[in-house]
Amino acid sequence: xxxxLQKLIDAKAKTERATGLGRFMHARMQMVFCxxxxxxxxxxxxxKLKIIPDLMDIMGPDSRVEVPIAGTINGRxxxxxxxxxxxxxxxxxxIVLDYKTDIDKSLFYKKYIAQLTEYRKLxxxxxxxxxxxxKILWLNDFTLENIA
Length: 148
What we know:
Elements: H1 3-30, E1 33-35, E2 38-40, H2 43-49, H3 55-58, E3 63-73, E4 76-88, E5 93-100, H4 109-126, E6 131-138, E7 143-147
Parallel strand pairs: 5-6
Antiparallel strand pairs: 1-2, 3-4, 4-5, 6-7
């Protein structure tokens, strides 16, 4: 086998492992909720989430997981799925929480910012007058990042 062919095979295997891990973690995150300080779901994940400030509401009963969203931005139709969406009608606030499993956060960072910018633009048409926040929950180290 040539060296180039082996590199292609190794790259494909690495991509498949990363995709599999992402799907696995997203499935585990879908089952996690917090209701008035009581957390349910995967115990390992819950232990890590409980210590992150500001997650109780985002992970609460008013949040929804895997929320489909679609619309047109600059004449281009876009269809996406938001990992977790929290809407507080009283405070006129929307929070988008996107999960990422990357070890190297910088590798696809620009792509992730573009993705969250699309979410924000699509949500602005639905939730007029609401403050829309976007956050990334990095599942590799369980850090929460606010995206401007």
